[in-house]
Structures are given as structure tokens and as C-alpha cells.
Amino acid sequence: MSFESLHRIKQEELQKKTEEIVKELTIESDEICKLTSYFIESMESGLDHQTSTSSKGLPMIPTFVLDKPNGTEKGVLMACDLGGTNFRVCSVTLNGDHTFELKQLKTKIPLEYLEDDTVTSEELFGFLARRIKVFMNKYHPDGAKEIFKMGFTFSYPVDQTSLSAGTLIRWTKGFKINDAVGKDVVQLLQDQLNKLELANVKIVALCNDTVGTFLSHCYRSVNSDSLTVGEISEPVIGCIFGTGTNGCYMEEIANIKKLPAELRDDLINKQGKRYMCINTEWGSFDNELKVLPTTKYDIILDQKISPNPGFHLFEKRISGMFLGEILRIILVDLHQQELLFQQFKVLPHRLSTPFELSTEVLSHIEIDDSTDLRETELNLLQSLRLPTNLQERVCIQKIVRAISRRSAYLAAVPLAAILIKTKCLNRRYHGEVEIGCDGSVVEFYPGYRSMLRHALSLSPIGPDGERKVHIFIAKDGSGVGAALCALVA
Ligand code: GLC
Question: Which residues form the signal peptide (predicted)?
Fold first, then answer.
């Protein structure tokens, strides 16, 4: 066979394979509906069963946050936030009029804390405490006698036992420090602060980043305190679509069956409270893979590459930490099938290294409309040292768009489920609702919010429900939200 005809056959095979992959990644509207019903079931099951003892349902962690801020809160509070990439220390002034001022110190978490298996929790929390000390020396040098209330945003699953205590269930987003699992993370940090003679900084609240995002959105939303005047819209969900994904909402305390009956009684009948914020930890929706669409690439990612196989499978199809990795795994597979990058016997080092292909690269490819996809060519060259031909780039762009669309369609599922479960779309006249979001994917990935909205209209809430949803980017949730948590502690 001539070289030309062999080349043509390969080209056709690549196109066919690309179509197959795109089809596998496509989520139809009936699947969105099925996933939404199963999500509601998983929420209900999670509200009935203890997180650590049951594998059924979602974690649905009670946060002990009982009220939504309305923007009139006032005070100066400290906050710190351990995310997947950075540690931030802030002091937040809440002005009581929906506005705030924030001073902050942001530090990139040194890679050894993420990559080195021998690092201990004492070392990690010691590092965090030293950063807090640097902040205090800079902004509150004379504050040794004052008591500073601090909210701690900790964006990993914890079994929360009160507003200010919670034990780590497991790490996500890359950390592997095993001896921290099962320990109270507030105590771990407070011990290290005390060692540095910073006992006057008191961690009074533990707050997941979704909860911080939600509270900070409520504080900022002018609608929080104006529902009686014109009934505009009501904040109902806080969520993150960034390195990881997660969401929270206010649940009726009476429905949180896993809380001890006496506690529920005390909250409802003695304290007159009706709702508690629930951190769903939706990243671990359907870890048993009953309904979640799964491709062979998802299995490779989970089993062979991720540090927590079998957990957070929903997150592994949605969040920024994984979208680039899914593409990388597909490209490596197509190379092994001799359909891509045929000039290489051995692939360039970066393409064969897990997590080297970042979701940011996908965001450039997603919207590339340059002649011959030159932008894509440059991006792949710069980020992976990977030369490509036009036909390869056309296929890569189709796959990129399928990966991001699947992510956004799946992201709509928990939103639709919570809107339905809380009946908030029917709660009041015209029932308009607000969703406060944070995270690089929802904020920066081109077209993500439109795709998510489209999927909401295909979900059981339909186009009528979708029109009532207002999506806001709630920045600084981890600072302002944690400060709001600390204020009520
Ligand atoms: C992961 C964590 C969760 C966090 C989310 C977003 O899913 O388990 O606690 O809220 O990432 O950062």
C-alpha cells in the first residue's frame, strides 16, 4: 500500500475514533434527568445516615451554620484558608452594609507538602501557623494581648461535630498526609499557633469553602435583606467549580435525621431555628457508579493516576484538577493506538507526565478560531513541547469541547437537584433564586456558564425553572465567609 493511502486510512480512523470519544462523553437530557433523581435520593440517604459509618448516599455534612447573613453584620475578624494550591491569611472588616475590606497574605503551598509522602500533619500545620505569624507581625504587630477570632476555611471533607471542630475524613485534590486523617483539623492548627505563642488567635469556626462562598454571597447580595420589598430573589446555593467541586444549601433541621433527636429538638424548639447549612461534598456523588456515565478514560484516571481511587468520582469528571488530565489520558491512548503523533515512538516527557496538561490549556483550545488552529498549535507547543498537524488539532479541539461540555452538564445536576429538593422555585411569588459560585472553571472557562445553564434547562426544572436561576460569582468566599462564620461563633 502506498504511503498516501496508508496516511488516508489513518486519518479516517482518527476521525472515526474522535467521533466515538465525543459520543461517549456526550450526556443526553434523559441522562441529566436520571442523574438528578438519583442525586436527590443520595442527598436524602446522606441526611439519614452518618457520614463515616455509611457508604450510602452523599456525605451531607451538617455545618452548624444556622442563619444566612443579610449584609448588616459588622466586625473585624481573621480568616485563613487552606485550598488546593494556596494558603491565605486575611483580616476582614465587615462594614454592615454588604461591603467589606480585606487585607491578605497569600502563599503558594510548597510542592513537598503535596508530593512528599513522609510529610507529617505537624509539619503542614506548623507551616500554616508560621504564615499566620508572618501576617500578624505585619498587620497586627501590637496585637499580642488582643484576642483575635479566626474562621478556618478548610476545603476537604471533615466530619463536623460543632461549628469549631471537625475530623478529617480524607484528603482530596492531591494532599496525602495520612496521619491527619481522623484528627480534628482545628486542634491541629490551634496547637501549632499556641506553640508559636499565638494563643490569642483563636480558631472559633471551621468552614468549608462552599459554605464560605454561600455566606459571602448572602452578605453581599442586596436581595438578602429586601425580600419583602418587591421580592426579588433569594440566595439558595453556594458552590465551587474550581480545582475541586462541591456545594452547600440550607436544609430543614427536621430533615437532618442523622443529627441526634435531642439536638434537633433543642435547635428547633428551644432556639427557634429552622434551617442548617449542609455541606453536601457532592464531589463524591455516586462513587458506586450506579448512574454516573463512565468511559475507559475515567477508569484510568481514577484507578491508575488519582491518589484517592474509588472516591470523588463525580469531581473527577467535572473539576479543574481533572479536565486537562482526562484529555492527556485520551491523547496518550490515541498515540498508543497509532492514531496520533506518529512521529514519536516515545511521547514528549510532559505529555506522559500526569497532571502536566492543565485545564487552562483546554480553555484556550476551546475557543480557538484562528486559521489552522494556530493558537492551539502554539499552546500545545508551549505547554507540552508537542508539535501537531492540523488534522490532529481539529480532533483535539473536538475532544476538548466534549470534555468541558460533559463537565458543565454534570455540574448542572446537583444544582437542579437542590432546587427541586428545597422547592425553592415555588417558595414565593415567581420564586427567583441566586446561586453564589466560586472557582476557576466557572469563572474563567469560556462558555462554561452558558453550557451549565443549557443543561439546567434540559434538567427536570426545565426552561421555566432555568430562567429563574441567577448565577453569581462570589469572590473571596473563603475570607469573608469564614469571617462571617467566626462572627456568630
Ligand atoms: C473537594 C473537597 C471539598 C471542597 C471542594 C472544592 O471536593 O472535598 O471539601 O469543597 O473540593 O474546593
Answer: none
Tell me which residue has its CA closest to atom 9 in ligand 1: 156
Burial of 211 from C-beta contacts in 10 A (0-12 / 13-18 / 19+): buried
As given in the structure block, the three cell numbers for residue 168 are 478529617
Q: What is the pLDDT of residues 172-185, one digit of tens each?
A: 877 889 999 999 99
* pTM listed for this prediction: 0.94
pLDDT in tens, 42-79: 999 999 987 544 456 899 999 999 999 999 999 999 99
Answer yes or no: are the C-beta atoms of 298 and 313 closer than 8 Å: yes
**CB neighbour list of residue 102: distance below 8 Å, 6 or more residues apart:** 90, 91, 92, 93, 476, 479, 480
Gap between the terminal Cα atoms of the chain? 76
**CATH class of the region 75-212+479-488:** alpha beta
**Burial readout 152-166 (b: 16 or more C-beta within 10 A, e: otherwise):** bbbbbbbbbeebbbb
List phi, psi (to 5°) of 296: -65, -25
Task: Name the DSSP letter for residue 184.
Answer: B
C-beta 325 within 6 A of ligand 1 = no
Q: Which three cell numbers stand for residue 316?
A: 473527577
Whether 209 sits among the annotated catalytic residues: the reply is yes
283 lines ligand 1 (CB under 6 A): yes
Residue 88 phi, psi (nearest 5) = -120, 140
Strands annotated E in 324-457 = 433-438
CA distance 31 to 5: 40
Q: How far is the CA of 315 from the centre of ligand 1 (A)?
A: 9
Q: Where are the domains of the chain?
A: 75-212+479-488
Q: What whole-number distance in Å separates Cα of residue 453 and Cα of residue 464?
A: 12
